From TrEMBL, chains A, B:
GO terms for molecular function: DNA binding; DNA-binding transcription factor activity. This is IclR family transcriptional regulator. PANTHER family: HELIX-TURN-HELIX TRANSCRIPTIONAL REGULATOR, ICLR FAMILY (PTHR30136), HTH-TYPE TRANSCRIPTIONAL REPRESSOR ALLR (PTHR30136:SF24). Residues 7-68 form the HTH iclR-type domain. GO terms for biological process: negative regulation of DNA-templated transcription.
DNA sequence: CACCCGTCTTCCACTGGACGGAAGGCGTGG
DNA sequence: CCACGCCTTCCGTCCAGTGGAAGACGGGTG
């Protein structure tokens, strides 16, 4: 094309979707154009089509938002709602026993995505959002997912910058590597104040026939936490879920 | 273009997404091509790009499924996860009080889409799926949404074929019209065995500043149902939710 | 009121991304 | 062995897409 030869129409449409984020779920046409790096007239045309189909919706304020039709299609993702449907009963059981925050996440590239969470009203407040992303190297679920990720993924995470969230976040590649080996050995992960100074999480893997596909965790206040007591509960829930997915829990 | 001049690239990409449905969430390349009505080579090219972005994923069986990235973007839909986040606590309260199925739906065109449901283990089994669609003229939520839909939408639904699910489904346009007027008057809808012969649902509107945006309902076994007793509960929940959305509940 | 600023919408002549038929590889099973 | 369905790649043609420019719109300011 004229502006940026080599850029396909499809990639431009996808760039428009990329422009939306949890932090900015409503955008004007101009904002959309700037974020996607496309001329206004181009965006105007493409957006009209997305609007007609229902991928985008336009509010009374003139801003564009993600449309329900796209949510509907997204709900067909096996690793999204599909996984959630199977996991929810197990997560609820875990919640009933502990009355603590229960989280379910999968790995997407070099980050994790939260698929579902049950936030206990009496439990520690956690700032995770369903559909939100987070780094792999700090949380309990992240450590489990990273420990069972392909070697290539692990290397890229270990090589890349490891953001420090608290004084206890493991940012040394060597230590993180040993940490992951330990997670594989014992079959669960503990993240003690590595994300915030008030929370501790214990996570276990969820296995399908193709390997570890998700991670389940409990997030509790660190001062009333007993990882050794919580681990068997989370692991048991992970096994139940693994079996439901046709996997072979260890 | 050559095959079907007038068809845009974007519409073709969207047609590929349309090919997926709850009944067939995993498709081969050929199936995808047939469903979208596009040549195989065209689909092959477009799908490769969707795969790279994460809109689609490919399983070990070679079939394509909706990818997590699309689920993630879809989760930004205000009428999808956004609404669910606000509604869930209210729905849980309603469930705690009744221990019956609680459902939340919005209107999308001439149908409704289920946004969330809480299925009581002891409650009547309902075959609704989160992300699934249904006709507007039979269910409790549907009647509420239809009763408060723009006149143009109502006319099109009344004109179109009204599928009969049971002997009690209202399929006469005149009767349905009176039914909708009654729903508006009393502020709630009752669907007594109009979908299945074992279930009854009571639904109430959810109002945001722009009008009725969703409907909340209880679905119970018809033989132990007392609509008059349930209505106030559902209406109260609807009002709480309306207020949370900045609406003015009546 | 006139002015400016940012936003949105529409128009049009050019061009390169998209097209799709065809041919080739791959696995299955009759 | 061949036939069948599926997937992948190639290449010459051509129309959908492009983006600058011009104009409408809307709100805030002097």
């Amino acid at each position: 094309m004229r502006g940026q030869p080599g850029r396909t129409v499809t990639s431009r449409v996808l760039a428009l979707l990329d422009a939306f984020s949890p932090a900015s779920p409503a955008l004007t046409l101009s904002e959309l154009a700037r974020r996607a790096g496309l001329p206004l007239s181009t965006v105007h045309r493409r957006v009209a089509e997305l609007l007609a189909w229902g991928a985008l919706e336009r509010g009374g304020d003139g801003r564009y938002r993600i449309g329900l039709r796209l949510w509907e299609v997204g709900s067909l993702a096996p690793r999204g709602l599909g996984l959630r449907e199977v996991a929810l009963p197990v997560m609820e059981d875990l919640y009933e026993v502990t009355h603590e925050n229960v989280q379910l996440a999968v790995r997407q590239g070099l980050e994790l995505v939260f698929i579902e969470r049950i936030a206990g009203r009496r439990a520690v407040p956690v700032r995770t959002r369903v559909g939100g992303r987070f780094a792999l190297h700090a949380t309990g679920v992240g450590l489990v997912l990273l420990a069972h990720a392909p070697a290539e993924v692990q290397e890229r995470v270990l090589a890349g910058p490891l953001e420090r969230y608290t004084a206890l976040t493991v940012t040394d590649p060597g230590r993180l590597r040993r940490c992951l080996a330990e997670v594989r050995r014992v079959g669960y992960a503990v993240s003690d104040r590595q994300v915030t100074m008030d929370a501790l999480s214990v996570a276990a893997p969820v296995r399908a026939p193709e390997g570890v596909v998700a991670a389940l965790s409990l997030v509790v206040a660190h001062d009333r936490a007993d990882p050794v007591a919580l681990a068997p509960l989370v692991q048991a829930a992970g096994r139940v879920l693994s079996r439901a997915l046709g996997g072979t829990p260890r």
